[in-house]
């Protein structure tokens, strides 16, 4: 170890960006073991307020850090982009020899022997897993609570929800417990928590991040992706996640140009479409105003910004049908054997799928095809589509889901995330970037949607937005109560 260097104080390490910490790792100015210790200390300092990382594997992380180091310094043969950076893994993704519950009592004591492909790939690229982030049961629902670990609280106001289903990951990153965390996204599970926690959450194109083994490897609805404090960190993490794998039939090869380079050379797009609601769902007026102001930032950069979007009129019924069919396929045995351990929303969703007819599924597939054609046509004339990432600011942590907005009542637990799941159907990459704050100081995110396989363009746009607003500089933060009082002693 280089004993001449002055070690960076642990609290300061946690406040640095992932990009900066990796630079320090590569220079030998900090070690992976020091970073594990720093993250562990920050988690101990904050997580009793948040419950973001209920399962830790500190000893496993320390042993991994020691393997990466050689004679006290980074082994020059360590591959990959992350070089010994600790990360959190969402509790839907197996990590070998680490408790993985999927947020369900059915798997409360489950310890897998093999990691998910994505986890293995990240570890090969220098990531060190330090813990598992909280998630709703089987990732079902956009508020993070379950009967195994309980509720996760929002660091901006611990009385508020972190959304879901990657809520634990978003809260952990926002509070500085880790520099990066993984998430998954079916109907908005990366984007909605990013909005609620004022961080960046990217839903990549299907296949961009290899996954598995899973029950439905040919499905394009659910994907894995990064959560980070800023666009550059998200790009770095996505670069570390990318890579083809034989076990994932949809997986894509590493692109010729890195996503981090795309962020570093970002230039404003020429023409952008903005929609306050995609024409399908009511949105809180304060959210619309905040997102409209964020869209105006691109106009100030010289972009043409027009209020226009593709036709999403068939998206709600289409997604609800395809989602239900997916849940029926994946969880039929859970319902048959463990009905008493499943939350009511899951039971409803599985049974809805089991009751579907072939005609209803065919209709949904046809509707999705029409939507995709509409979107391809739209991107023939526009570089990006902007809209809110969530239709409301963070709500009460005890609320299971949003059931009404502006007098419009929703009849099920996922209807309120229509603004994100409509984009899921297109298979286009989409990112939630901090747009601003409500009058009560709660985060609001802007959803930036790019053309097919256009992750570089949405990451670049998110970087430009954060340069214009400065909102990315507000995280990490110490958890706060409802009065804005910090709950962590300096």
Provide a concise account of the structure shown.
By secondary structure, this protein is α+β, with helices and mostly antiparallel strands.
Apparent shape: globular
CATH-assigned fold name: Amidase signature (AS) enzymes
CATH C-level name: Alpha Beta
User: What does the average pLDDT come to?
Assistant: 96
Structure description:
- This protein is α+β, with helices and mostly antiparallel strands.
- The chain has one domain (10-474): Amidase signature (AS) enzymes.
- Helices cover 37% and strands 16% of the residues.
- The protein is built from 15 helices and 19 strands.
- It has helices spanning 10-15, 18-27, 32-50, 58-68, 117-124, 167-174, 191-197, 231-241, 259-264, 285-300, 315-338, 344-354, 358-378, 418-424, 455-469, and strands at residues 55-56, 69-70, 73-74, 85-90, 127-133, 145-146, 150-151, 153-154, 157-161, 180-185, 200-203, 223-228, 271-274, 304-307, 384-388, 404-405, 408-409, 430-437, 443-449.
- The strands form 5 sheets. It has an 11-stranded mixed sheet, with helices on both faces. A two-stranded antiparallel ribbon has the order 2-3. The chain has a two-stranded antiparallel ribbon with strand order 6-7.
- Strand 18 (430-437) and strand 19 form a beta hairpin.
- 57% of the residues are buried.
